[in-house]
Amino acid sequence: MRTPRRRHRVLPAVLAVTALIAAVSGCSRAAESTASANDSGPAAELRLGFFPNVTHAPALVGIDEDKKFIAKELGGTKLSTQAFNAGPSAVEALLAGSLDATFIGPNPTINAFTKSNGKAVRLIAGAATGGAQLVVRKEINGPQDLKDKSIATPQLGGTQDVALRAWLAGHGLKVETTGGKDVKIANTENPQTFDAFRTGQLDGGWLPEPWSSRLVLEAGGKVLVDERDLWPGGKFPTTVLIVRTEFAQKHPATVQALLRGHVAATKYLTDSPAEAKKTVNAALGKYAGKPLPEPVLERAFSQISFTTDPAAGTFPKLSKDAVAAGVAKQEFDLKGLVDLAALNNALKAAGLPGVDASGLDGK
C-alpha cells in the first residue's frame, strides 16, 4: 500500500520540475527574443567616413575600388563613403545620423561618447598608431620659442589639436581656451596649413601624416615634437574605427562584415607594404588632389604602425589631456565605450590573436 502513496508523492514533484524547466526555457527564449529584437538583418547601406591621410591607410585600402576588401565582405549592402578633414566634423555627421561608422581620431571619439552620455557610439577597432608631429620653422628650438607664434591643427577639439594644447599647457604656455595668448592656435585644413607654412603665414603645425612629412621635406620645417616620444613605448592611437550604437544593434551582421574587411585591409598593409603604398598613394591622388612624392610617402609610412588594436588603455589619459587642453570641462567615465567582440571574431576567423578592451568594455 506504500508504493501507490510513494508514486503519488513523486508525480507532483516530476510535474513541478517539468514546469520549472518549461518556465526557464520560456524565460531563455524570451531573453533571446529581446536580445535579437533590434537585429534587422544586414543593412541596405553602410555610410562610412574617413580622412584622406596616410594615418587612415587602412580605410583607404579597405574602400579601394579594385581591392574591395570591405565591399566584398558587405555582399548586398551598398558601401557609401565620405571624406572628412578632421574628427569633429565626422562626429557631427555621426551624431546627426547621416553617417553609420567612421575612421577617426581618439579624442573626437571620446567627445562623441561623452556628448551622448555614453550612448551614441562604440569604438570597435583600431587602425593606426603614431604618425603625428609638431613641425616648426628651423629657428624654433624649444617651447620657449613658441611665444607669440601661430601653430596650426586640423580642427578645434581634434586629436592633434588636443595633443598640441595639452603639450603647451605642460610647458606653461597658454592659449585662448586656457586663459592666455602665449601661442595662437590656427585651426586650419591640412592643405591650407601646408600653403600657409610655406609662405610664412604660419610658424608650425601639429599634424598627422602625410602633412608633417610634407612640411619637413617640401616646406623646410623641422620636427620639434614627435608625439611617439610622449607615450610609453612610443605607442598612441592616431586612428580608430567607431560605429553608431543604434546601427550596430540593428545591423550586427553588417558591422561584422565591415570588421572582416578592415582586418583584411590591415593585414594587406602589413604583409605587402610596397604594393599597399601604391594603393594608398593612388587613393590620396583621388581624394586629396594629387599623389605624394616618393620621399614623402616613404617618410610618412615610416612614422606609422597599422593595427586593429585600438590601444584602449591609452584612452583614460587622452581624456585627461582633453581637460588639460581646455577643450573638455571634466573627465568622463569611459566604461562601455569599447566593444571588441565583433573584431575579435573577425581576428579569430583570420587566424590572428585577439585584442583587449583594457576594462572599457563595460563587462
Automatic annotation (TrEMBL):
Question: Which residue positions does the secretion signal occupy?
Answer: 1-30
| This protein's UniProt keywords | Cell inner membrane, Cell membrane, Membrane, Signal, Transport
What GO CC terms are in its UniProt record?
A: periplasmic space; plasma membrane
A Pfam family it matches: NMT1_2
Q: Which GO terms describe its molecular function?
A: ATPase-coupled transmembrane transporter activity
Places the protein is found: Cell inner membrane; Periplasm
PROSITE patterns the record matches? PROKAR_LIPOPROTEIN (PS51257)
Q: What is its main location?
A: membrane
Q: Which family does it belong to?
A: Belongs to the bacterial solute-binding protein SsuA/TauA family.
Cross-referenced PANTHER family, in alphabetical order? ALIPHATIC SULFONATES-BINDING PROTEIN-RELATED (PTHR30024), TAURINE-BINDING PERIPLASMIC PROTEIN (PTHR30024:SF47)
Quote the protein name from its UniProt record.
Answer: NitT/TauT family transport system substrate-binding protein
Q: What organism, scientifically named, is this protein from?
A: Crossiella cryophila
